[in-house]
Write a sequence for this structure.
C-alpha cells in the first residue's frame, strides 16, 4: 500500500505542475493580446444564413471586414438602426484574432 500511495502522490504532483504551467501559459496569452477598437463605415448583415452557417454581422473597419458571429436579434436591429440614423458603430477585437469581433458598441452622440 505504501508504494501505491507514493505513486499516486507523484502523479498528483505532476498534474499540479502541469496545471500551473497551463495557467501561466493562458495568462501570458491573454496579456499578449491587446484589445483594439475602430469605427465601422459599412456593414454586411447576414440575417438568414445558408443552412448550417451562423448568422453574422461583418463590420468594415479601416478597410477590413471583421466578423461578429451569432448576434442576437436586438444586435441586428441596433446596428441597422445606427447606420440608418448616422450613429457610430464601434467594433472591438483583440490582436490575436483581428478578423473576429469580440464586441459591438453603438454610440448615439
Amino acid at each position: 500500500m505504501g508504494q501505491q500511495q507514493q505513486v499516486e502522490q507523484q502523479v498528483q504532483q505532476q498534474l499540479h505542475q502541469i496545471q500551473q504551467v497551463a495557467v501561466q501559459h493562458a495568462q501570458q496569452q491573454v496579456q499578449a493580446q491587446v484589445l483594439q477598437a475602430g469605427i465601422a463605415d459599412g456593414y454586411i448583415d447576414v440575417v438568414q444564413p445558408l443552412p448550417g452557417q451562423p448568422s453574422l454581422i461583418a463590420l468594415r473597419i479601416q478597410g477590413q471586414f471583421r466578423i461578429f458571429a451569432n448576434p442576437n436579434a436586438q444586435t441586428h436591429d441596433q446596428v441597422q438602426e445606427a447606420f440608418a440614423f448616422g450613429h457610430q458603430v464601434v467594433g472591438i477585437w483583440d490582436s490575436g484574432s483581428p478578423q473576429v469581433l469580440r464586441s459591438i458598441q453603438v454610440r448615439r452622440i
